[in-house]
Amino acid sequence: MMKKPLLTAAAALLLSTTTLSFADDVEDAIEYRQSIFKAIKYHFGPMAGMIRGKIDYDPAAFTLHAERVAELAKMPGDGFIPGSDKGDTEAKASIWDNKGEFDEHLAALAENTSALLDVSKTGDLDQIKPAFGEVGKTCKGCHDEFREE
């Protein structure tokens, strides 16, 4: 007779652990992608300052920031796991409803930041500005469609 209550308790414990683990995974995924976007913003800021003339243009510093952004831009997709549309996030549910379109935005971000990195190596601000603008448009396009304000 003792086996049935023990098995029931063990099953309940296993299910609660699985649920907690999933919740942790979701929270970790949200924190992961938010951290990456914050790091992108951190590196994007000085580049924007240089583009707008608010910070003296430093080709080496610009390229360093462009390198960081190009690497970071490849990473956020890993943080958009199923179920991570709930919780402390500004991600719209449309990300998961239109995953293919969202993935295209992420691919465009990676492509455009890579192009910005390439052109940043020329040191020619006149060539860099349009590439920087394309990255900004890519960010805005995704935010407009897939991010709660």
UniProtKB/TrEMBL annotation:
Claim: ATP-binding is one of the keywords in the record: no
Top-level taxon:
Bacteria
Q: What Gene Ontology cellular component terms go with this record?
A: periplasmic space
GO biological process terms, semicolon-separated: electron transport chain
Example of a GO MF term: electron transfer activity
- Protein keywords: Electron transport, Heme, Iron, Metal-binding, Signal, Transport
Which N-terminal residues, if any, form the signal peptide?
1-23
Q: How is it modified after translation?
A: Binds 1 heme group per subunit.
Pfam families documented for this protein:
Cytochrom_C_2
Provide the residue positions that the database annotates as binding heme c.
Answer: C139, C142, H143
Q: Which residues form a coiled coil?
A: none
Listed name of the protein? Cytochrome c
